[in-house]
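Please go through this protein, sequence plus C-alpha coordinates, and consider how the sequence yields the C-alpha coordinates. Keep your notes short.
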Amino acid sequence: MRLAVFAAAFVFTAWASQAHAEAPGATAKPGQIAERASASVNDERPDAQDLARWFYAVLAGEIAAHTGHPGTAYAELLKAARDLHSEALFQRAAEIALTAGAPQQALDAVNAWRADQPDSLKAQSWTAQILVALGRHTEAVGAISRLIALTPQPQRPNTILSLAGLFARAGDGQIAVDLAKKVLTPYGGIPQSSVVIGQLYARAGSANAAFAHASRALVAEPGMREAAELVLQTYTADPGRADQLLAQYVAAKPQDADLRMAWIQAALGQQRDGVALAQTEALSKVKPDVPDVWFVLGSLQLRQDQAVQAQSALLRYLSLIGASKHAAPPPALERAYVALSDAALQQSEFQQAERWLENIPTGQRTVVTILQQATILVRQGKLESGLGLLDKLPAATAQQQREKLLARAQIYRTAKQYGNAYAVLASGMPQFGAEPDYAYETAMMAEKSGHPHKMQRMLRKLIADHPQYQPAYNALGYTLADEGRQLPEAMKLIARALKLSPGNPFVLDSLGWAQFRTGDLKKAAATLEAAFAARPDPEIAAHLAEVLWQRGDKARARAILRQAFERAPQDGGVQAAMQRMGVRF
Protein backbone atom coordinates (compact mmCIF):
# COMPACT_ATOMS: atom_id res chain seq x y z
CA MET A 1 0.00 0.00 0.00
CA ARG A 2 2.78 2.39 0.88
CA LEU A 3 4.63 1.73 -2.34
CA ALA A 4 1.45 2.27 -4.31
CA VAL A 5 0.77 5.59 -2.62
CA PHE A 6 4.32 6.84 -3.09
CA ALA A 7 4.23 5.69 -6.69
CA ALA A 8 1.08 7.74 -7.21
CA ALA A 9 2.74 10.74 -5.65
CA PHE A 10 5.84 10.48 -7.82
CA VAL A 11 3.74 9.93 -10.94
CA PHE A 12 1.70 13.01 -10.13
CA THR A 13 4.85 15.07 -9.45
CA ALA A 14 6.09 14.20 -12.92
CA TRP A 15 2.68 14.98 -14.37
CA ALA A 16 2.48 18.32 -12.57
CA SER A 17 5.72 19.54 -14.14
CA GLN A 18 4.20 19.31 -17.63
CA ALA A 19 1.14 20.69 -19.41
CA HIS A 20 -1.11 17.64 -19.14
CA ALA A 21 -3.45 17.56 -22.17
CA GLU A 22 -6.35 15.44 -23.40
CA ALA A 23 -8.84 15.79 -26.25
CA PRO A 24 -11.76 18.17 -25.60
CA GLY A 25 -14.43 15.48 -25.86
CA ALA A 26 -16.51 13.86 -23.15
CA THR A 27 -13.38 13.05 -21.07
CA ALA A 28 -11.49 16.27 -21.86
CA LYS A 29 -9.64 18.26 -19.25
CA PRO A 30 -11.13 21.75 -19.23
CA GLY A 31 -7.68 23.22 -19.78
CA GLN A 32 -7.45 21.67 -23.23
CA ILE A 33 -8.98 24.67 -24.99
CA ALA A 34 -6.38 26.97 -23.47
CA GLU A 35 -3.61 24.60 -24.48
CA ARG A 36 -4.71 24.86 -28.11
CA ALA A 37 -4.35 28.63 -27.82
CA SER A 38 -0.86 28.44 -26.36
CA ALA A 39 1.63 25.61 -26.67
CA SER A 40 2.21 25.43 -22.93
CA VAL A 41 1.80 27.39 -19.72
CA ASN A 42 4.67 26.71 -17.36
CA ASP A 43 4.79 27.30 -13.61
CA GLU A 44 7.68 29.31 -12.33
CA ARG A 45 10.35 26.88 -11.25
CA PRO A 46 10.27 26.60 -7.43
CA ASP A 47 13.40 26.65 -5.28
CA ALA A 48 14.40 23.61 -3.23
CA GLN A 49 12.35 24.62 -0.15
CA ASP A 50 9.23 25.28 -2.25
CA LEU A 51 9.76 22.04 -4.13
CA ALA A 52 9.78 20.12 -0.85
CA ARG A 53 6.60 21.86 0.34
CA TRP A 54 5.02 21.14 -3.05
CA PHE A 55 5.96 17.49 -2.89
CA TYR A 56 4.54 16.98 0.63
CA ALA A 57 1.37 18.89 -0.23
CA VAL A 58 0.89 16.67 -3.26
CA LEU A 59 1.70 13.60 -1.23
CA ALA A 60 -0.83 14.46 1.48
CA GLY A 61 -3.49 15.35 -1.03
CA GLU A 62 -2.98 12.22 -3.11
CA ILE A 63 -2.98 9.97 -0.02
CA ALA A 64 -6.29 11.50 1.04
CA ALA A 65 -7.71 11.16 -2.47
CA HIS A 66 -6.66 7.51 -2.75
CA THR A 67 -8.00 6.60 0.70
CA GLY A 68 -11.51 7.94 0.12
CA HIS A 69 -11.18 11.45 1.60
CA PRO A 70 -11.65 13.79 -1.37
CA GLY A 71 -12.65 16.72 0.85
CA THR A 72 -9.34 16.57 2.71
CA ALA A 73 -7.44 16.12 -0.53
CA TYR A 74 -9.19 19.14 -2.05
CA ALA A 75 -8.45 21.33 0.95
CA GLU A 76 -4.77 20.31 1.17
CA LEU A 77 -4.14 20.82 -2.53
CA LEU A 78 -6.02 24.12 -2.75
CA LYS A 79 -4.11 25.50 0.24
CA ALA A 80 -0.82 24.42 -1.29
CA ALA A 81 -1.83 25.91 -4.64
CA ARG A 82 -2.49 29.28 -3.01
CA ASP A 83 0.75 29.17 -1.02
CA LEU A 84 2.89 28.09 -3.95
CA HIS A 85 0.96 29.93 -6.71
CA SER A 86 0.99 26.62 -8.59
CA GLU A 87 -1.20 26.26 -11.66
CA ALA A 88 -0.82 22.48 -11.60
CA LEU A 89 -2.06 22.26 -7.99
CA PHE A 90 -5.06 24.53 -8.64
CA GLN A 91 -5.95 22.26 -11.56
CA ARG A 92 -5.53 19.12 -9.48
CA ALA A 93 -7.78 20.49 -6.72
CA ALA A 94 -10.48 21.26 -9.30
CA GLU A 95 -10.12 17.77 -10.78
CA ILE A 96 -10.57 16.10 -7.38
CA ALA A 97 -13.71 18.16 -6.75
CA LEU A 98 -15.17 17.21 -10.11
CA THR A 99 -14.35 13.54 -9.56
CA ALA A 100 -16.11 13.71 -6.18
CA GLY A 101 -19.21 15.19 -7.81
CA ALA A 102 -18.74 18.68 -6.35
CA PRO A 103 -18.73 21.06 -9.35
CA GLN A 104 -19.29 24.13 -7.19
CA GLN A 105 -16.12 23.34 -5.20
CA ALA A 106 -14.31 22.87 -8.51
CA LEU A 107 -15.53 26.31 -9.58
CA ASP A 108 -14.35 27.78 -6.27
CA ALA A 109 -10.90 26.32 -6.88
CA VAL A 110 -10.81 27.69 -10.41
CA ASN A 111 -11.98 31.12 -9.21
CA ALA A 112 -9.13 31.10 -6.67
CA TRP A 113 -6.82 30.11 -9.48
CA ARG A 114 -7.99 33.02 -11.64
CA ALA A 115 -7.63 35.42 -8.74
CA ASP A 116 -4.07 34.22 -8.20
CA GLN A 117 -3.21 34.11 -11.95
CA PRO A 118 -5.63 36.42 -13.77
CA ASP A 119 -3.89 35.96 -17.13
CA SER A 120 -3.98 32.16 -17.07
CA LEU A 121 -5.62 30.82 -20.21
CA LYS A 122 -6.00 27.42 -18.62
CA ALA A 123 -7.81 28.81 -15.57
CA GLN A 124 -10.18 30.74 -17.83
CA SER A 125 -10.83 27.62 -19.89
CA TRP A 126 -11.69 25.61 -16.80
CA THR A 127 -14.03 28.36 -15.62
CA ALA A 128 -15.90 28.42 -18.92
CA GLN A 129 -16.33 24.67 -19.11
CA ILE A 130 -17.50 24.27 -15.52
CA LEU A 131 -20.04 27.09 -15.93
CA VAL A 132 -21.40 25.43 -19.07
CA ALA A 133 -21.61 22.11 -17.27
CA LEU A 134 -23.55 23.79 -14.45
CA GLY A 135 -25.97 25.35 -16.96
CA ARG A 136 -24.98 28.88 -15.95
CA HIS A 137 -24.91 30.12 -19.51
CA THR A 138 -25.08 33.85 -18.83
CA GLU A 139 -21.89 33.63 -16.76
CA ALA A 140 -20.38 31.24 -19.30
CA VAL A 141 -20.71 33.86 -22.04
CA GLY A 142 -18.49 36.20 -20.07
CA ALA A 143 -16.01 33.47 -19.20
CA ILE A 144 -15.65 32.24 -22.79
CA SER A 145 -15.36 35.81 -24.05
CA ARG A 146 -12.56 36.49 -21.57
CA LEU A 147 -10.82 33.29 -22.71
CA ILE A 148 -10.84 34.49 -26.32
CA ALA A 149 -9.73 37.99 -25.28
CA LEU A 150 -6.80 36.56 -23.29
CA THR A 151 -5.67 34.43 -26.23
CA PRO A 152 -2.94 36.05 -28.35
CA GLN A 153 -4.40 37.15 -31.67
CA PRO A 154 -2.40 34.69 -33.84
CA GLN A 155 -3.86 31.78 -31.83
CA ARG A 156 -7.46 33.04 -31.66
CA PRO A 157 -8.74 31.20 -34.78
CA ASN A 158 -7.63 27.84 -33.37
CA THR A 159 -9.08 28.67 -29.96
CA ILE A 160 -12.42 29.58 -31.52
CA LEU A 161 -12.49 26.32 -33.50
CA SER A 162 -11.85 24.38 -30.31
CA LEU A 163 -14.95 25.90 -28.69
CA ALA A 164 -17.46 23.95 -30.83
CA GLY A 165 -17.53 21.01 -28.44
CA LEU A 166 -17.94 23.32 -25.45
CA PHE A 167 -20.92 25.10 -27.00
CA ALA A 168 -22.46 21.76 -27.95
CA ARG A 169 -22.43 20.69 -24.30
CA ALA A 170 -24.60 23.68 -23.42
CA GLY A 171 -27.67 21.90 -24.75
CA ASP A 172 -29.39 20.67 -27.86
CA GLY A 173 -30.28 22.64 -30.94
CA GLN A 174 -30.89 26.35 -30.69
CA ILE A 175 -29.56 26.66 -27.14
CA ALA A 176 -26.01 25.89 -28.29
CA VAL A 177 -26.38 28.12 -31.36
CA ASP A 178 -27.60 31.06 -29.27
CA LEU A 179 -24.73 30.69 -26.78
CA ALA A 180 -22.18 30.58 -29.60
CA LYS A 181 -23.68 33.64 -31.28
CA LYS A 182 -23.54 35.68 -28.07
CA VAL A 183 -19.87 34.85 -27.62
CA LEU A 184 -18.67 34.96 -31.22
CA THR A 185 -20.56 37.94 -32.67
CA PRO A 186 -17.69 40.32 -31.76
CA TYR A 187 -15.36 37.97 -33.63
CA GLY A 188 -17.42 37.76 -36.80
CA GLY A 189 -14.41 38.86 -38.83
CA ILE A 190 -12.63 35.61 -37.94
CA PRO A 191 -13.89 32.93 -40.40
CA GLN A 192 -13.58 30.21 -37.75
CA SER A 193 -16.46 31.87 -35.89
CA SER A 194 -18.75 31.15 -38.85
CA VAL A 195 -17.53 27.56 -38.98
CA VAL A 196 -18.33 26.95 -35.31
CA ILE A 197 -21.81 28.46 -35.57
CA GLY A 198 -22.38 26.48 -38.78
CA GLN A 199 -21.32 23.26 -37.08
CA LEU A 200 -23.84 23.89 -34.33
CA TYR A 201 -26.58 24.66 -36.86
CA ALA A 202 -25.78 21.37 -38.62
CA ARG A 203 -25.99 19.56 -35.28
CA ALA A 204 -29.38 21.18 -34.72
CA GLY A 205 -30.63 19.95 -38.11
CA SER A 206 -30.61 23.39 -39.82
CA ALA A 207 -28.68 22.43 -42.94
CA ASN A 208 -29.39 25.64 -44.87
CA ALA A 209 -28.15 27.87 -42.05
CA ALA A 210 -25.12 25.64 -41.57
CA PHE A 211 -24.34 25.81 -45.28
CA ALA A 212 -24.63 29.60 -45.29
CA HIS A 213 -22.11 29.92 -42.46
CA ALA A 214 -19.75 27.38 -44.02
CA SER A 215 -19.93 29.26 -47.33
CA ARG A 216 -19.09 32.56 -45.65
CA ALA A 217 -16.06 31.04 -43.97
CA LEU A 218 -14.77 29.32 -47.10
CA VAL A 219 -15.10 32.49 -49.16
CA ALA A 220 -13.06 34.35 -46.54
CA GLU A 221 -10.45 31.58 -46.26
CA PRO A 222 -10.59 29.21 -49.28
CA GLY A 223 -8.05 26.79 -47.81
CA MET A 224 -9.80 26.18 -44.48
CA ARG A 225 -10.45 22.45 -44.25
CA GLU A 226 -13.02 22.72 -41.44
CA ALA A 227 -15.13 25.02 -43.60
CA ALA A 228 -14.79 22.71 -46.61
CA GLU A 229 -15.83 19.74 -44.48
CA LEU A 230 -18.93 21.61 -43.33
CA VAL A 231 -19.81 22.49 -46.93
CA LEU A 232 -19.59 18.80 -47.76
CA GLN A 233 -21.67 17.86 -44.72
CA THR A 234 -24.43 20.18 -45.95
CA TYR A 235 -23.81 19.62 -49.68
CA THR A 236 -27.43 18.88 -50.54
CA ALA A 237 -28.53 22.34 -49.35
CA ASP A 238 -27.10 23.87 -52.55
CA PRO A 239 -24.96 21.49 -54.63
CA GLY A 240 -24.24 24.04 -57.35
CA ARG A 241 -22.88 26.63 -54.93
CA ALA A 242 -21.08 23.90 -52.97
CA ASP A 243 -19.27 22.81 -56.14
CA GLN A 244 -18.04 26.37 -56.71
CA LEU A 245 -16.76 26.68 -53.14
CA LEU A 246 -15.11 23.27 -53.11
CA ALA A 247 -13.39 24.04 -56.41
CA GLN A 248 -11.79 27.04 -54.69
CA TYR A 249 -10.72 24.82 -51.78
CA VAL A 250 -9.05 22.15 -53.93
CA ALA A 251 -7.32 24.89 -55.91
CA ALA A 252 -5.82 26.08 -52.61
CA LYS A 253 -5.20 22.55 -51.29
CA PRO A 254 -4.70 20.31 -54.37
CA GLN A 255 -3.05 17.54 -52.33
CA ASP A 256 -6.09 16.95 -50.11
CA ALA A 257 -7.16 13.73 -51.80
CA ASP A 258 -9.47 12.63 -48.99
CA LEU A 259 -11.62 15.72 -49.17
CA ARG A 260 -11.74 15.69 -52.95
CA MET A 261 -12.83 12.04 -52.89
CA ALA A 262 -15.55 12.94 -50.38
CA TRP A 263 -16.66 15.69 -52.77
CA ILE A 264 -16.82 13.18 -55.62
CA GLN A 265 -18.99 10.88 -53.49
CA ALA A 266 -21.29 13.77 -52.56
CA ALA A 267 -21.68 14.77 -56.21
CA LEU A 268 -22.46 11.19 -57.21
CA GLY A 269 -25.09 11.07 -54.48
CA GLN A 270 -26.88 13.90 -56.28
CA GLN A 271 -26.25 12.31 -59.72
CA ARG A 272 -23.94 15.17 -60.68
CA ASP A 273 -21.74 12.93 -62.81
CA GLY A 274 -20.18 15.78 -64.77
CA VAL A 275 -18.80 17.34 -61.59
CA ALA A 276 -17.68 13.97 -60.24
CA LEU A 277 -15.92 13.07 -63.49
CA ALA A 278 -14.04 16.37 -63.68
CA GLN A 279 -12.82 16.05 -60.11
CA THR A 280 -11.86 12.40 -60.50
CA GLU A 281 -9.83 13.22 -63.60
CA ALA A 282 -8.05 15.98 -61.68
CA LEU A 283 -7.46 13.71 -58.69
CA SER A 284 -5.95 11.01 -60.91
CA LYS A 285 -3.24 13.50 -61.85
CA VAL A 286 -2.59 14.60 -58.27
CA LYS A 287 -2.74 11.10 -56.73
CA PRO A 288 -1.93 8.70 -59.59
CA ASP A 289 -1.02 5.83 -57.25
CA VAL A 290 -4.39 5.55 -55.47
CA PRO A 291 -6.25 2.53 -56.97
CA ASP A 292 -9.79 3.62 -56.05
CA VAL A 293 -9.39 6.87 -57.96
CA TRP A 294 -8.89 4.93 -61.19
CA PHE A 295 -11.83 2.63 -60.55
CA VAL A 296 -14.18 5.57 -59.95
CA LEU A 297 -12.77 7.32 -63.01
CA GLY A 298 -13.29 4.30 -65.23
CA SER A 299 -16.83 3.78 -63.95
CA LEU A 300 -17.75 7.42 -64.62
CA GLN A 301 -16.21 7.36 -68.07
CA LEU A 302 -18.30 4.30 -68.87
CA ARG A 303 -21.44 6.19 -67.88
CA GLN A 304 -20.37 8.93 -70.28
CA ASP A 305 -19.88 6.35 -73.07
CA GLN A 306 -16.11 6.98 -73.07
CA ALA A 307 -15.27 3.31 -73.50
CA VAL A 308 -11.62 3.65 -74.57
CA GLN A 309 -10.74 6.00 -71.71
CA ALA A 310 -12.67 3.81 -69.26
CA GLN A 311 -10.74 0.72 -70.29
CA SER A 312 -7.42 2.52 -69.74
CA ALA A 313 -8.48 3.72 -66.27
CA LEU A 314 -9.75 0.29 -65.21
CA LEU A 315 -6.58 -1.43 -66.38
CA ARG A 316 -4.59 1.09 -64.34
CA TYR A 317 -6.74 0.18 -61.34
CA LEU A 318 -6.00 -3.54 -61.77
CA SER A 319 -2.30 -2.82 -62.22
CA LEU A 320 -2.11 -0.85 -58.98
CA ILE A 321 -4.10 -3.52 -57.15
CA GLY A 322 -1.76 -6.20 -58.46
CA ALA A 323 1.28 -4.27 -57.25
CA SER A 324 -0.23 -3.73 -53.81
CA LYS A 325 0.67 -5.88 -50.82
CA HIS A 326 -3.02 -6.19 -49.99
CA ALA A 327 -5.18 -8.24 -52.36
CA ALA A 328 -8.42 -6.65 -53.49
CA PRO A 329 -11.57 -8.33 -52.15
CA PRO A 330 -13.42 -10.51 -54.70
CA PRO A 331 -16.39 -8.09 -55.06
CA ALA A 332 -14.01 -5.29 -56.07
CA LEU A 333 -12.34 -7.44 -58.69
CA GLU A 334 -15.70 -8.62 -60.00
CA ARG A 335 -16.85 -5.01 -60.41
CA ALA A 336 -13.66 -4.13 -62.25
CA TYR A 337 -13.86 -7.03 -64.72
CA VAL A 338 -17.56 -6.45 -65.35
CA ALA A 339 -16.79 -2.77 -66.03
CA LEU A 340 -14.05 -3.77 -68.48
CA SER A 341 -16.50 -6.14 -70.14
CA ASP A 342 -18.97 -3.28 -70.44
CA ALA A 343 -16.31 -1.07 -72.03
CA ALA A 344 -15.69 -3.76 -74.65
CA LEU A 345 -19.42 -4.19 -75.16
CA GLN A 346 -19.84 -0.46 -75.81
CA GLN A 347 -17.43 -0.95 -78.70
CA SER A 348 -19.27 -4.10 -79.89
CA GLU A 349 -16.21 -6.23 -79.09
CA PHE A 350 -18.26 -9.21 -77.96
CA GLN A 351 -15.49 -11.78 -77.62
CA GLN A 352 -13.31 -9.41 -75.60
CA ALA A 353 -16.30 -8.61 -73.38
CA GLU A 354 -16.67 -12.35 -72.66
CA ARG A 355 -12.96 -12.78 -72.03
CA TRP A 356 -12.89 -10.14 -69.34
CA LEU A 357 -15.56 -12.03 -67.43
CA GLU A 358 -13.50 -15.23 -67.55
CA ASN A 359 -11.13 -13.62 -65.03
CA ILE A 360 -13.83 -13.91 -62.36
CA PRO A 361 -13.73 -17.32 -60.63
CA THR A 362 -17.01 -19.22 -60.96
CA GLY A 363 -17.55 -19.32 -57.21
CA GLN A 364 -17.24 -15.54 -56.95
CA ARG A 365 -19.71 -14.60 -59.67
CA THR A 366 -22.81 -12.77 -58.52
CA VAL A 367 -25.95 -11.82 -60.40
CA VAL A 368 -24.02 -8.83 -61.78
CA THR A 369 -21.67 -11.08 -63.75
CA ILE A 370 -24.45 -13.40 -64.92
CA LEU A 371 -26.49 -10.41 -66.12
CA GLN A 372 -23.48 -9.08 -68.03
CA GLN A 373 -22.99 -12.48 -69.70
CA ALA A 374 -26.65 -12.52 -70.67
CA THR A 375 -26.44 -8.96 -72.00
CA ILE A 376 -23.51 -9.89 -74.25
CA LEU A 377 -25.58 -12.73 -75.71
CA VAL A 378 -28.62 -10.52 -76.28
CA ARG A 379 -26.50 -7.86 -77.99
CA GLN A 380 -25.50 -10.61 -80.44
CA GLY A 381 -29.15 -11.50 -81.07
CA LYS A 382 -29.17 -14.55 -78.76
CA LEU A 383 -32.08 -13.59 -76.53
CA GLU A 384 -33.12 -17.12 -75.58
CA SER A 385 -29.57 -18.04 -74.62
CA GLY A 386 -29.38 -14.96 -72.42
CA LEU A 387 -32.67 -15.76 -70.74
CA GLY A 388 -31.45 -19.32 -70.25
CA LEU A 389 -28.50 -18.03 -68.22
CA LEU A 390 -30.84 -16.07 -65.98
CA ASP A 391 -33.05 -19.13 -65.47
CA LYS A 392 -30.13 -20.72 -63.61
CA LEU A 393 -29.99 -17.94 -61.04
CA PRO A 394 -31.00 -19.04 -57.52
CA ALA A 395 -34.44 -18.05 -56.31
CA ALA A 396 -34.58 -19.52 -52.82
CA THR A 397 -35.02 -16.19 -51.01
CA ALA A 398 -37.22 -13.19 -51.65
CA GLN A 399 -34.13 -11.10 -52.42
CA GLN A 400 -32.95 -13.62 -55.01
CA GLN A 401 -36.42 -13.73 -56.58
CA ARG A 402 -36.46 -9.93 -56.81
CA GLU A 403 -33.00 -9.82 -58.38
CA LYS A 404 -34.01 -12.47 -60.90
CA LEU A 405 -37.12 -10.54 -61.98
CA LEU A 406 -35.16 -7.29 -62.36
CA ALA A 407 -32.42 -9.04 -64.33
CA ARG A 408 -34.93 -10.70 -66.66
CA ALA A 409 -36.69 -7.37 -67.24
CA GLN A 410 -33.35 -5.74 -67.99
CA ILE A 411 -32.58 -8.36 -70.63
CA TYR A 412 -35.92 -7.79 -72.33
CA ARG A 413 -35.26 -4.05 -72.19
CA THR A 414 -31.86 -4.53 -73.85
CA ALA A 415 -33.64 -6.49 -76.56
CA LYS A 416 -36.18 -3.62 -76.82
CA GLN A 417 -39.02 -5.99 -75.93
CA TYR A 418 -40.60 -3.51 -73.53
CA GLY A 419 -43.93 -5.31 -73.30
CA ASN A 420 -42.24 -8.46 -72.02
CA ALA A 421 -40.10 -6.40 -69.62
CA TYR A 422 -43.23 -4.78 -68.17
CA ALA A 423 -45.00 -8.13 -67.88
CA VAL A 424 -42.07 -9.57 -65.91
CA LEU A 425 -42.00 -6.67 -63.48
CA ALA A 426 -45.78 -6.56 -63.15
CA SER A 427 -45.77 -10.23 -62.15
CA GLY A 428 -43.67 -9.32 -59.12
CA MET A 429 -45.78 -6.36 -57.98
CA PRO A 430 -47.93 -8.38 -55.53
CA GLN A 431 -44.75 -9.47 -53.74
CA PHE A 432 -42.43 -6.48 -54.21
CA GLY A 433 -44.72 -3.58 -55.07
CA ALA A 434 -44.40 -2.08 -51.58
CA GLU A 435 -40.72 -1.39 -52.33
CA PRO A 436 -40.56 2.06 -53.96
CA ASP A 437 -37.63 1.27 -56.26
CA TYR A 438 -39.34 -1.83 -57.62
CA ALA A 439 -42.66 -0.03 -58.10
CA TYR A 440 -40.88 2.85 -59.84
CA GLU A 441 -39.09 0.55 -62.28
CA THR A 442 -42.39 -1.14 -63.07
CA ALA A 443 -44.07 2.23 -63.70
CA MET A 444 -41.29 3.34 -66.03
CA MET A 445 -41.56 0.11 -68.00
CA ALA A 446 -45.33 0.54 -68.26
CA GLU A 447 -44.74 3.81 -70.08
CA LYS A 448 -42.05 2.29 -72.33
CA SER A 449 -44.44 -0.52 -73.28
CA GLY A 450 -47.14 1.94 -74.37
CA HIS A 451 -49.23 2.29 -71.20
CA PRO A 452 -48.70 5.91 -70.07
CA HIS A 453 -51.94 6.01 -68.06
CA LYS A 454 -50.87 2.95 -66.07
CA MET A 455 -47.56 4.65 -65.41
CA GLN A 456 -49.24 7.79 -64.09
CA ARG A 457 -51.58 5.80 -61.84
CA MET A 458 -48.66 3.85 -60.43
CA LEU A 459 -46.62 7.00 -59.84
CA ARG A 460 -49.50 8.72 -58.03
CA LYS A 461 -49.90 5.68 -55.80
CA LEU A 462 -46.17 5.63 -55.19
CA ILE A 463 -46.26 9.30 -54.11
CA ALA A 464 -49.19 8.59 -51.79
CA ASP A 465 -47.45 5.58 -50.24
CA HIS A 466 -43.95 7.11 -50.10
CA PRO A 467 -44.22 10.93 -49.94
CA GLN A 468 -40.44 11.35 -49.64
CA TYR A 469 -39.63 9.34 -52.77
CA GLN A 470 -38.23 11.96 -55.14
CA PRO A 471 -38.05 10.00 -58.46
CA ALA A 472 -41.84 9.56 -58.53
CA TYR A 473 -42.48 13.32 -58.29
CA ASN A 474 -39.90 14.04 -60.96
CA ALA A 475 -41.12 11.38 -63.39
CA LEU A 476 -44.78 12.37 -63.08
CA GLY A 477 -43.99 16.09 -63.31
CA TYR A 478 -41.84 15.61 -66.38
CA THR A 479 -44.47 13.41 -68.05
CA LEU A 480 -47.19 16.02 -67.57
CA ALA A 481 -44.89 18.82 -68.78
CA ASP A 482 -43.78 16.83 -71.82
CA GLU A 483 -47.42 16.28 -72.75
CA GLY A 484 -47.97 20.03 -72.45
CA ARG A 485 -50.94 19.66 -70.12
CA GLN A 486 -51.60 20.22 -66.44
CA LEU A 487 -48.53 22.46 -66.38
CA PRO A 488 -49.28 24.04 -62.96
CA GLU A 489 -49.43 20.55 -61.40
CA ALA A 490 -46.30 19.53 -63.30
CA MET A 491 -44.41 22.53 -61.88
CA LYS A 492 -45.56 21.72 -58.33
CA LEU A 493 -44.47 18.10 -58.66
CA ILE A 494 -41.06 19.06 -60.02
CA ALA A 495 -40.61 21.73 -57.34
CA ARG A 496 -41.26 19.06 -54.71
CA ALA A 497 -38.72 16.76 -56.35
CA LEU A 498 -36.16 19.55 -56.38
CA LYS A 499 -36.76 20.22 -52.70
CA LEU A 500 -36.17 16.55 -51.94
CA SER A 501 -33.04 16.44 -54.12
CA PRO A 502 -31.56 19.94 -54.64
CA GLY A 503 -29.21 20.25 -57.57
CA ASN A 504 -30.15 16.89 -59.04
CA PRO A 505 -29.53 17.37 -62.79
CA PHE A 506 -32.40 15.11 -63.84
CA VAL A 507 -34.83 17.17 -61.78
CA LEU A 508 -33.31 20.39 -63.12
CA ASP A 509 -33.82 18.98 -66.62
CA SER A 510 -37.50 18.37 -65.85
CA LEU A 511 -37.84 21.90 -64.48
CA GLY A 512 -36.17 23.41 -67.51
CA TRP A 513 -38.39 21.43 -69.85
CA ALA A 514 -41.50 22.51 -67.95
CA GLN A 515 -40.36 26.14 -68.15
CA PHE A 516 -39.87 25.67 -71.88
CA ARG A 517 -43.40 24.29 -72.21
CA THR A 518 -44.78 27.36 -70.40
CA GLY A 519 -42.93 29.62 -72.85
CA ASP A 520 -40.31 30.97 -70.43
CA LEU A 521 -37.30 30.40 -72.69
CA LYS A 522 -34.89 32.51 -70.63
CA LYS A 523 -35.46 30.57 -67.41
CA ALA A 524 -35.55 27.29 -69.30
CA ALA A 525 -32.14 27.96 -70.86
CA ALA A 526 -30.56 28.89 -67.52
CA THR A 527 -32.00 25.83 -65.77
CA LEU A 528 -30.98 23.44 -68.52
CA GLU A 529 -27.47 24.93 -68.67
CA ALA A 530 -27.10 24.14 -64.96
CA ALA A 531 -28.40 20.61 -65.49
CA PHE A 532 -26.08 20.01 -68.46
CA ALA A 533 -23.04 21.33 -66.57
CA ALA A 534 -23.77 18.93 -63.72
CA ARG A 535 -24.41 15.94 -65.99
CA PRO A 536 -23.88 16.07 -69.78
CA ASP A 537 -26.53 13.43 -70.44
CA PRO A 538 -27.78 13.05 -74.05
CA GLU A 539 -31.42 13.74 -73.17
CA ILE A 540 -30.49 16.84 -71.16
CA ALA A 541 -28.33 17.93 -74.08
CA ALA A 542 -31.26 17.45 -76.48
CA HIS A 543 -33.54 19.59 -74.31
CA LEU A 544 -30.94 22.34 -73.99
CA ALA A 545 -30.29 22.30 -77.73
CA GLU A 546 -33.98 22.68 -78.50
CA VAL A 547 -34.37 25.62 -76.12
CA LEU A 548 -31.26 27.33 -77.53
CA TRP A 549 -32.61 26.74 -81.04
CA GLN A 550 -35.88 28.45 -80.14
CA ARG A 551 -33.94 31.36 -78.63
CA GLY A 552 -32.04 31.84 -81.88
CA ASP A 553 -28.67 30.42 -80.80
CA LYS A 554 -28.75 27.84 -83.56
CA ALA A 555 -25.00 27.33 -83.92
CA ARG A 556 -24.54 26.28 -80.30
CA ALA A 557 -27.77 24.28 -80.36
CA ARG A 558 -26.54 22.31 -83.36
CA ALA A 559 -23.12 21.70 -81.76
CA ILE A 560 -24.64 20.40 -78.52
CA LEU A 561 -27.10 18.19 -80.35
CA ARG A 562 -24.38 16.79 -82.62
CA GLN A 563 -22.33 15.87 -79.56
CA ALA A 564 -25.34 14.12 -78.02
CA PHE A 565 -26.07 12.28 -81.28
CA GLU A 566 -22.49 11.06 -81.60
CA ARG A 567 -22.62 9.71 -78.08
CA ALA A 568 -26.11 8.16 -78.25
CA PRO A 569 -27.45 8.06 -81.83
CA GLN A 570 -30.44 5.89 -80.89
CA ASP A 571 -31.57 7.96 -77.89
CA GLY A 572 -35.27 8.80 -78.19
CA GLY A 573 -34.86 12.33 -76.81
CA VAL A 574 -32.04 13.11 -79.22
CA GLN A 575 -34.01 11.75 -82.19
CA ALA A 576 -37.10 13.75 -81.20
CA ALA A 577 -35.10 16.98 -80.88
CA MET A 578 -33.48 16.42 -84.29
CA GLN A 579 -36.89 15.91 -85.85
CA ARG A 580 -38.45 19.01 -84.25
CA MET A 581 -35.41 21.15 -85.12
CA GLY A 582 -35.25 19.73 -88.63
CA VAL A 583 -31.55 18.82 -88.46
CA ARG A 584 -29.70 15.70 -89.55
CA PHE A 585 -26.18 14.47 -88.89
